[in-house]
Amino acid sequence: METEMLQKKQTLSHLPQRAPVNIEFQDLTYTVPQGRKGSKMILRSVSGNFRSGQLTAILGPSGAGKSTLLNILAGYKTIGAAGLVLVNGQPREIKQFRKISRYIMQDNLLQPMLTVQELMMVAADLKLNRELSKDDKLKAVSEILEILRLTPAEHTITNRLSGGEKKRLSVALELINNPPVIFLDEPTTGLDDLASSQCISLLKLLAEGGRTVICSIHSPSARLFSQFDNAYIVAGGQCMFQGYGQEIIPFLSGIGLTCPKHYNPADFIIEVASGEYGNEYLDKMSLVMDNGRNTSFCKPIDEEIQLGNESSDQLGAITYARTSSDNFSPYNYDCSIWYQFKILLRRFWIQTFRDSNHLIFKMVLYAVLGVILGSFYLNMGQDGSKAVFNFGFCYTCVIAFLYLPLMPVLLHFPVEVQMIKREHFNQWYGLTAYYLAMSFTTLPLHTVFTICYISIAYFMTDQPLEIQRMSMFLLICILTTFISESFGLMIASVLNMVNSMFLGPCLSVPLMLLAVYGIGQANDIPILIRIAMYFSYLRYGMEGLIVAIYGNGRAILSCPEEEVICPLRDPKFLISFMGMDNVIFWVNVIALIVCFFVFRLASFYFLRQRLQPNKTFTALNVIGRIVKSHFGITR
Ligand SMILES: Nc1ncnc2c1ncn2[C@@H]1O[C@H](COP(=O)(O)OP(=O)(O)OP(=O)(O)O)[C@@H](O)[C@H]1O
Question: Does pTM surpass 0.95?
Answer without folding.
Answer: no
